[in-house]
């Protein structure tokens, strides 16, 4: 399955391949980037790094002070081989909406304009002017006519729609044009992670898996079932702050208890409210920049005994970092650089 989120109405968006692309992820702390080459058996990182940003320049992926971000990005790429590279950028999970939308059985060329109308009228999004992409699912849905209308029941095709705010994407396009980097595509973080595994057959396409990105100041979770990203949720949980406070109070595990409660709440919502069809999460892959992932994995294994919990596999990544676990902070940019 190949996703292109979104199909931007820009003349320079063309064909992609796996070589020569740089994956970039913008967070409130800075920009992580990776240029990688994927072979049949491994991922070779050619260059990777982190360009730090001062506090307040970016908030939840939105650029607050574009002038200063441009200055920092220009300074950060001076001594790299990033100049004039083609960039694949991630959209913050906090800004991504995934919906299933039923539509009449129509030719594919008629679907995008119809979905555009649906997103503006029927599907309620928390932002205007969405950029979106869609995928036709291998399922049909039975749609009943409005009560009293006299209409007939209709079987419709089901589409998975992934949407992001147009204003945010426009910010990224302008940012990279100012520093002479070419924004070739944007993608969502869960698909970047899934790509890292599925390309090398680590991902189980038949089961239900959850990806858990534990960063310093936020946690993202996403649920995949049979290769489809069904649900994403951003948990605004400041892991570093909670950990520091609880350690100062002599309660080392307290922050993990609080985080576990938030994650368990999301899992239960997905299993029993959103799905409610017997679907159960079978695996949790943990990744992200938080350094104490081994502790969190052990902590969660003791409490979710019916779910296999493991770090995102990175043994197939050849990298320049001192330790393998440091790769976990760069898994999203790695997956972005593999977008084909």
UniProtKB/TrEMBL annotation:
It holds the Pfam family PilM_2. Gene3D superfamilies: 3.30.1490.300, 3.30.420.40. InterPro entries: ATPase_NBD, FtsA/MreB, PilM. It comes from the Bacteria. PANTHER family: CELL DIVISION PROTEIN FTSA-RELATED, ETHANOLAMINE UTILIZATION PROTEIN EUTJ. This is Pilus assembly protein PilM.
């Amino acid at each position: 399955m190949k996703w292109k989120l979104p199909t931007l109405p820009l003349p320079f968006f063309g064909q992609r391949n796996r070589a020569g692309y740089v994956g970039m992820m913008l967070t409130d702390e800075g920009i992580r980037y990776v240029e990688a080459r994927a072979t049949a058996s491994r991922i070779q990182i050619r260059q990777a790094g982190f360009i730090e940003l001062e506090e307040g320049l970016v908030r939840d992926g939105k650029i607050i002070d574009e002038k200063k971000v441009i200055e920092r990005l220009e300074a950060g790429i001076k001594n790299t081989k990033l100049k004039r590279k083609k960039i694949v950028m991630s959209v913050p999970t906090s800004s991504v909406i995934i919906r299933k939308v039923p539509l009449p059985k129509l030719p594919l060329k008629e679907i995008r304009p119809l979905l555009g109308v649906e997103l503006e009228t029927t599907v309620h999004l928390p932002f205007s002017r969405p950029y979106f992409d869609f995928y036709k699912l291998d399922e049909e849905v039975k749609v009943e006519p409005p009560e009293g209308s006299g209409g007939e029941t209709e079987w419709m095709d089901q589409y998975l729609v992934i949407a992001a705010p147009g204003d945010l994407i426009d910010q990224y396009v302008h940012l990279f044009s100012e520093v002479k980097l070419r924004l070739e595509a944007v993608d969502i973080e869960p698909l970047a992670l899934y790509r890292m595994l599925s390309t090398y057959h680590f991902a189980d396409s038949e089961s239900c898996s959850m990806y858990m990105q534990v960063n310093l100041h936020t946690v993202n979770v996403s649920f995949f079932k049979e290769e489809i990203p069904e649900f994403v949720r951003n948990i605004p949980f400041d892991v570093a702050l909670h950990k520091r406070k609880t350690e100062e109070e002599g309660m080392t595990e307290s922050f993990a208890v609080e985080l576990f409660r938030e994650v368990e709440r999301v899992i239960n919502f997905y299993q029993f409210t959103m799905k409610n069809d017997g679907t159960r999460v079978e695996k949790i892959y943990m990744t992200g920049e938080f350094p104490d992932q081994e502790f969190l994995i052990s902590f969660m294994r003791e409490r979710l005994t019916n779910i296999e919990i493991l770090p995102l596999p990175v043994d197939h990544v050849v990298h320049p970092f001192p330790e393998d676990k440091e790769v976990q902070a760069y898994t999203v940019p790695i997956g972005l650089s593999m977008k084909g």
